[in-house]
Design a protein that fits this description.
The chain is mostly helical. The protein has a domain of 37 residues. Helix content is 37%, strand content 0%. It contains six helices and no strands. The termini are far apart.
Length: 137
């Protein structure tokens, strides 16, 4: 959030209504006041249509951010947009998993599972058990 604030300015208090965590909201309120830096200044030479799309994509508040459909219809993406070749989800994505109260160990296990599904070589190797020789034999 610190880097985002440096580039996009501090999120006004009235735009923090979507943040459900009190701790996160307090953190965001304590961030330094930074003026909004013009995207044109950050990306000199970028086409105006690209900057307009980027500005709409980078809105912090989800209700102010451009939708996927509107982004695909944006003039900057017009040359790439082909509605007949873009799949649509048959149902709305379910975010109920975010309501689960995870303990640290469980969260770590889930992260390792996710990493392992993409890069099995990154998974930790279980330690080998040493064989002990029974002195009575």
């Amino acid at each position: 959030m610190t880097i985002i604030t440096e580039k996009l300015g501090k999120v006004p208090d009235e735009d923090l209504d979507f943040v459900t965590s009190d701790k996160a909201r307090r953190f965001m309120r304590k961030l330094p006041d930074k003026p909004l830096m013009s995207l044109r200044r950050q990306f000199p030479g970028a086409p105006p249509e690209a900057l307009d799309l980027l500005e709409n994509l980078l809105k912090i508040h989800p209700k102010q951010r451009i939708t996927v459909e509107k982004a695909l219809d944006h003039p900057f993406l017009a040359p790439l947009h082909n509605p007949r070749d873009e799949p649509e989800a048959e149902s709305t994505f379910d975010f109920e998993f975010e309501q689960e109260n995870l303990h640290r160990v469980k969260l770590q296990e889930l992260i390792w599972e996710e990493v392992g599904s993409f890069r099995p070589s990154c998974l930790p190797v279980a330690p080998r058990r040493r064989r002990t020789i029974n002195s009575s034999n």
